[in-house]
Amino acid sequence: MWRLFGSLLAAVILSVDTRPNMKLNSQSSSGLRSDCVGNLMRLSLDKALAVGNELEVEAVNGTQHIVITARLASQCGYSMESDLSGNTRIYSSLLGCYVDNKDDRIFNVGMRLRIYSNSQSDVVTHDVTQTCSYTPWASREILCDRNYMEVSGFIADAGTKGLAQDVKEGDNLPDVSGDAHGIWKLTFYTPEPVAMVLREAEQAGYGLMLTSTRLVVRSPYNTAQTTSEEVGGVSMEVIRVSAYYQTPYGLNVMNLAAACPTGGVLFINNLISWHIPRRLTPLVDGSFEVLELHMGINGKRLDRSQMATRGYTLSTTRHHIVMEIPVGSPDGHFKSHAPDYQYHISYSVAPMLEVLWKAKDAEDDIRYKVLFPITTPLLPQLPHFQESTVPEARMFRFFLGTFLHDVVLKNITFSTGVLTVDECNTRGFIIQEHGYANGTKSYSLSVPFDADVVLKHNPELLITTYLLPLTFGFIILPEETSFAHQVQLQASLQDVELPTITGTCDQKNFCITVKYGSQGNNFQAMVGHRRLTPEMAEDYQFQENGTHFSVKLPYDAKDAVLELIQTDSLRARVDLSLLDHINNWVLADLYLACTFPFTTTTCYPNGTMTATAVKVQSVANLVPSRLTLMDQSCKPAFSDDRFARFSFSVDSCGTTRTFFDHYMLYENEIGLHYNKGLYNKGVAKTSPNDPAYRQTISCYYVVNETQTVAATSKQRLYEPKADIGAGQLMVQMRLAQDSAYQLFYQAEDYPVVKYLRQPLYFEVALIESTDPNLELIVEKCWATLDEDRTSLPSWDVIVDGCENPDDIYVTVFHPVVSDSRVLFPSHIKRFSMKMFTFTKEKAVQKDEIYVHCDSVICDTSSRADGSCRGQCVQPTRHSNARPERKGEKRARRGTDSSQQRQISGLIVLMSQTSE
After folding, report:
1. How many CB atoms are located within 10 Å of the residue 453 CB?
2. Among 197, 236, 221, which residue's Cα sits nearest to residue 75?
3. d(Cα 525, Cα 502) in Å, to the nearest integer?
């Protein structure tokens, strides 16, 4: 029995047991074609029948069905092959064991095909019958098929043939021997003679039979009685045998020989060159002439025009018959392979050679027919890589191929891991398979530059190089052999948008904003000479929103540079730069210098002077603690690494006095005095170029001016009373979720989103105090655009403890009563206001407001404390104490309540608490 698994590539014949319990379904022979090719019958199965199924072949002899096993196939003249596409061909010799032979002229070949599906639950059967006519026979006919050699000779004086017996149970060959007519014994020459009777030869695997006109001997390859010989430089498998057979006229003997090539193939420049000895010495002795010479494919002859169309040639030399077939001709097929995980292909074709010889000194002729499947050595096939990437489109695109149709793309390994084809398409990496008319195919892949599987680096400041390393994982069907192919794509694009830095200054701080570029926050921020660490960021009020970050540095911050000091101002500078992590390139920088209000000298009426010295950049080695006044014994009252403060009377420390018309000028000098030996370490004078520090300080007093101070007294109504003690009072402001004041927004809830005109419920509370005599008064509250409580524009919400009379939406105070949470109602004040925003020229300035409050804590038990009059007991009706800038005003509370505005950031009490 033959079992064909979907895509067998050669004549693979397997033996298995029969299946008596399978269900039989009779079907038509669609997809089956049979024809006669000389002394062979050929049966072709379409791939639709064979692929993915198992095939079992039975020979039909009358009413009997004989399962063809591998051994029986070579003994009885059957062979099979399959190409890459799954098309299968089965050959039967017309002199086969189970062929209905009519006088060696008409031959009826019967077969039954059983096709088992993968589930093996059903068997589909196909019955095939083909009648062939073959005349005339040559005196000797030699057939070399894939799995056997067959030689037959003409019986000149034959009578009637011996009767063939039916197949008996356990027998695979009919018994054609008999007393009056049949084969008696055989002698094989190896070269030593080896004699066997018929039964022994049949048991050894040989096929022997007498027909009406011919004696047939059939042998598998590589038996004990065959020899390997070299004829004309070509390896041949040879069998020599003498067959003794009995006829009614007596005992006869016939000497037969067969020689079949096992080599002779050369592969040169994509050309298959098959050489067959012109003189086959085991078959031909003496002089001979070639009467016919034919070439064929798959057992069927080709005429000259067919050969020319395909590029085939058949020629003879002095010693050989030469057949040439281009690799890739349409009669063959390619197959994929993967030795060492590398892609290779082979090409297979099944040529046929048919020669008719005739000896010059005899009438006998010899027909020699060889079916010789040829497969090329494995040919490395490096897949062709064609890139079509357009960097401006920001998409890698390329083709990889070509591959045979038995190759399937299984997965792709990216820098981040392995993805199947479906996973690639799901993630937007488009994989497409492209088929071509010659049966090959290629694959295309598109991957965006911005995908996480793409590696990026910047060889230059403004240029990004995108790198896509890939490993394609393929499998070859049906064996599922795997191989891989690596590809690396690279593209460069000038697409870097650098970050930008802007900065301003207020009265005390540098305010710097960094806008991210195309690479986000992938940089290192440097403030001065130090990296911006998380600790520094906290000190400098770092804020970040995904596209920007901002910092706020005091003018005297450690990383600021003090450049110039004047009588009433100080010029300071901060340097901020953004560095590339890898190459240390400067992506952006800002040198922000501002002048800040700064008082260096203060003159007091009592004749006391205070002065501040500053270590500026020009004297970087200055140690402020070593500065002195003109009298070097007068040292700083306070000093650190940047400032030194002096306090002295105008009649000391070497202060000089100069009179003018109506003024008196006192002057002194802060400096270093190298020549006095007071600067013995750190900034010792080492050369005439060492910088000197000198700062002149002065005070003017008016001469002969009298200051009159008036004082009156009034009897106190109450004597002040104070308990001796120390401690601190803590006040907090919170935003309630509703008017019940039970649920409050937590730190993680900010910024809180509210609609315009939606009420905001605030609670200001004195906490951690159990003194019932204390009362908290909300003195004033106002709203600003920025976190800075002094920033403009602003709007008063509470003025002098009462609502702002200029606000058409009046602030509402809510009573506080004792409950489980409130122990001392006097410690808490509650009020609500309507949500609003600031506008300028009818445009909203910002979607955020910050609310600030000042509170007063007083002692209700002391009548001397006039501030404890209660919340809004004597409301004042002043106009808004914080005037608007020109063109700025509070947003009108319109009817469009769908606009959302935010209270952004934590609502922190930024209060001045007094007692």
Report:
1. 20
2. 221
3. 14
Nearest to 282 by CA among 303, 302, 266, 260: 260
Q: Does the N-terminal peptide bond of residue 895 adopt cis geometry, omega within 30 degrees of 0?
A: no
Burial of 107 (0-12, 13-18, 19+ CB in 10 A): buried
Handedness of CA 554, 557, 559, 564 (dihedral sign): positive
pLDDT score, position 504: 95
Amino acid letter for position 690: D
Spatial distance between the Cα atoms of 75 and 77, rounded to a whole number of angstroms: 6
Tokens for 82, please give them: 């399959």
Q: Which amino acid, 747?
A: A
CB 646 within 8 A of CB 629: yes
CB 377 within 8 A of CB 397: no
Q: In the β-sheet with 759-767, what is the strand arrangement from edge to edge?
A: 730-736, 759-767, 828-834, 812-814
* Structure tokens given for 403: 């591959």
Cα separation, 81 vs 298, in Å, equals 9
pLDDT at 898: 37
What CA–CA distance (Å, rounded) separates 599 from 543?
Answer: 31
Phi-psi sector, 429: left (phi>0), alpha (psi -120 to 50), beta: beta
Query: Is residue 418 a contact partner of residue 470, using CB atoms and an 8 Å limit?
Result: no
Supply the pLDDT for residue 895.
31
Pull the structure tokens for residue 168: 């008996």
669 forms beta bridges with 696
Q: What is the pLDDT of residue 682?
A: 38
Q: Which of the 8 DSSP states describes residue 538?
A: H
Residues of the chain with pLDDT under 50: 1-28, 158-180, 676-683, 707-711, 874-915
